[in-house]
Structure formats: C-alpha cells, structure tokens
Amino acid sequence: KDHCALLFHKGALLKDPKSLLVQQTENVQSARQLRFTSVKDIERSTPVVRAYMKEAIALEGAGKQVALKKTADFDMPEELEAYLKEDAELRKAFKALTPGRQRGYLLHIGGAKKPETRVARIEKCRDRILAGKGWNER
Description:
The protein has helices at 39-44, 46-61, 78-86, 88-96, 99-110, 115-130, and strands spanning 4-8, 32-36. It folds into 2 domains: 4-61, no CATH class; 71-130, no CATH class. It is mainly α. It starts with a strand and ends in an 8-residue tail after the last helix. The protein is elongated, with a radius of gyration of 19 Å. The model has no long low-confidence stretch (mean pLDDT 92).
C-alpha cells in the first residue's frame, strides 16, 4: 500500500469540511479513513487529526449512532432469488444467517457483472451458506 490510515468507526458522522475522510469502498456505511502517504504528511495533519479525534470522542460520548442500511434494503440478485426459491435447504440456511453474513453474500454475488459469474458464485458458496458461514469465512 502507498499509504497508512487512521480509521474512524463512525466517521460518517464527522464533519469533514475539507473532504479529507475517505470511504474505503462504496459498501462501507459508517467507517471513514484519514490517509497519509508520508511522515511529513502526518506531521502537517496533526491539528486536523486532533480535531477529528476530539469530535469522534464527543460523538461517542453522546451515544450517536450511524443509521445503517438494513439487509432488506440491499438488492437481491435475481439468480440468488431463483436458487433460494428452488432449494428449500439453501433458503432455510440463508435465512438463518446473521444479517451481516446475508449482506456479505448479497454484495459478493451481486458484485459480479455477468449472470453466469453470479451463478458460479452461488454454487461455490452453497456449502458455506449451509454451514452457516459468511462468504469469506473458512
């Protein structure tokens, strides 16, 4: 990597007037990063880092929460919907997964551009779903 990062778990709540906070991926809902590419960059940013940390501590102390998107609000890939409709065992196992694991599969499977890739991902993940594991768990 060409940077080091300071992660704020509830970074989405921070005021960011200079747009310094980075959202790691489009699917990250709450966390934000301050990224640094050199020691001088860190030294120059010390006042900003302190201000962000003070604000983060105040938000935490106030009990503020990020309004997270519910799993039901994520798009269900058509192919997964068809598999779940046809395979009762898979449907039951998928519904038994935690919302986070379900979301992981929705994003992983839905992230494929081609239908055949989505089908391949479903077939590859079937055993893990039946075992109650997330898509990237061993």
